Amino acid sequence: MREQWQALGRWLTKVVTLYAHPLARFGDDGLNKNAMKQRPHVGRIPDLTWLTDGSPAPTSLSTVVFRADTSVEETLEEVVIPASVMAADGSTYESFTASLAFPGLHVGVFSHPSMTLRHPLVERGHAWELLRSAPPDGSDLADLPTLSHHAVRVCAGGGVPEGHQIDASTDSRLTGLFGYEDRGALGRPDG
Length: 191
What we know:
By secondary structure, the chain is an alpha/beta fold. It has helices at 2-19, 29-34, 50-53, 120-124, 168-178, and strands at residues 36-37, 42-43, 61-66, 68-69, 77-81, 84-86, 92-94, 96-102, 105-111, 116-117, 128-129, 147-148, 152-156, 159-161, 165-166. Strands 1, 2, 3, 8, 9 and 11 form a 6-stranded antiparallel beta sheet that branches. Strands 7-6-14 form a 3-stranded mixed beta sheet, with no helix packed on it.
């Protein structure tokens, strides 16, 4: 059910965000051994009070899941999350990214204050954003294609003005600006 996917999204957001802390470990040795996290996480851990006070998830927070094969290292897409956002009033907001991959599942958590995120795998239907646009009732993770747990490389750095949209149209400009390799060298998933 859609509500169950959203509840799972809230739980995964909490787990991945708290696991991003450098001292955090799972209480289960099997999970510690099989979970692959990308360290270091980038940015300040977002405020998670919405998880306990009954309010909805902030629109500036996205949790994206896709089916993952942890034995494959292929990168298909790149998402550039600016490290900071400069608001019109001069204040600055810091972004956050963290991910965790298990055999069969990759979870990415993105805090993108004053920006919108159009994740390339979600746009293609190869991943789901669980907090606000969870899949409809009857959806099965097995219906998604299995991709490398590195299918999306997240790059962070620099700053952008308030209202910036994070999507493929600006990624090439930002990757060039930050000195990352050309997106053209990356493969593309079918679809």
